[in-house]
Design brief:
2 domains; globular; Bifunctional oligoribonuclease/PAP phosphatase NrnA
Length: 319
């Protein structure tokens, strides 16, 4: 029995679900969460949507987003579904509430440990939303205009507006079908990219001032300190796409964004078109895709910066 069939059987046998995605949620995680949540509710299921983090401002107009909880459901659940996240360690506080619940993982990131009772994984898919789209079509589950909008958001964001290397023919076919089902590309683009808070631009100015180039311009690096966040009023979620901006510099092969929002807690984003940054992230306990990866570490930004530069030197020199 394949994993999609196993999931369909589990849905038929289960009434109460909890759906979640990784901390620091993005468009793919949230769009997938909302799309599957509506689909299960339409089948008469009791569904709780939970994210153990703040919803970034650009995603607060997604249909159904007002139903996402930030407090752990008190009544328990029979099945937990992790979307865009193959590692239970990345779902926050909910990890400690898994006892007795079945777990389903739906993700397009590679994982060495298939931790779920059902694991629907495809590291070649450009977005988790595309995996859901395939599944909905295979199971003949209807796609409403709001589901189409959320799936389109998932696809658009994780393909970098259809610019990243993993964007393929299937992604464009999916986008066309979602538009036919009611998604509005213009409305999604407006909601995602034309409602940024002013604090984001103040932080971006700090990031550009802090830009460093190393190894003859091949590596671009930005460190954002706690002071940068405090003085601009910005949040960690306001840095989305900053790493891609660094990568867009013509000489840069490897982009590094180091964020220390809270003193002693660092989050790092890595981007590249030609270098496997997942290998670099794995050296620091993180992971991701070949072109986009990251990690978190309890340390100071300057300590992580020094260690990253040395590790990046070895990687870029082919050691």
């Amino acid at each position: 029995m394949d994993e999609v069939t196993k999931f369909a059987r589990l849905v038929a046998e289960t009434h109460r679900f909890c759906l979640t995605t990784h901390v620091h949620p993005d468009g793919d995680g949230l769009g997938s969460l909302l799309a599957l949540g509506e689909t299960l509710k339409n089948q008469g299921k009791e569904v709780v949507l939970f994210v153990d983090d703040e919803i970034p401002p650009q995603y607060r107009r997604l249909p159904g987003i007002e139903g996402v909880l930030s407090e752990i459901p008190k009544d328990g659940f029979e099945t937990l579904v992790l979307l865009d996240c193959a590692e239970p360690s990345r779902i926050g506080r909910l990890k400690s509430h898994l006892v007795g619940a079945k777990m389903v993982i739906i993700d397009h990131h590679s994982s060495s440990d298939e931790a779920g009772d059902v694991n629907i994984l495809d590291p070649q898919a450009p977005a988790t939303g595309l995996i859901l789209f395939r599944m909905f079509r295979a199971l003949s589950w209807p796609i409403t205009p709001s589901i189409a909008t959320n799936l389109y958001t998932a696809l658009l964001t994780d393909t970098g507006c259809f610019c990243f290397q993993q964007t393929n023919e299937e992604a464009f076919r999916m986008a066309a079908e979602l538009v036919a089902a009611g998604a509005s590309p213009a409305k999604v683009a407006e909601d995602l990219f034309e409602h940024y808070p002013l604090r984001r631009f103040k932080l971006l100015a700090r990031a550009l001032d802090a830009l460093e180039l190393h190894f003859g311009g091949r590596l671009g690096l930005v460190v954002l300190t706690p002071e940068a966040f405090q003085e601009t009023g910005a949040q960690g979620s306001d840095t989305e796409s900053f790493a891609n901006m660094i990568r867009s510099i013509d000489t840069v092969e490897l982009a590094v964004l180091i964020r220390e929002v809270t003193p002693g807690q660092v989050a790092v984003s890595l981007r590249s078109q030609r270098i496997n940054v997942a290998r670099l992230a794995e050296r620091f306990g993180g992971g991701g895709h070949a072109q986009a990866a990251g990690f978190k570490k309890r340390a100071r930004a300057d300590e992580v910066r020094a260690a990253l530069l040395e590790a990046a030197r070895e990687l870029m020199e082919g050691k």
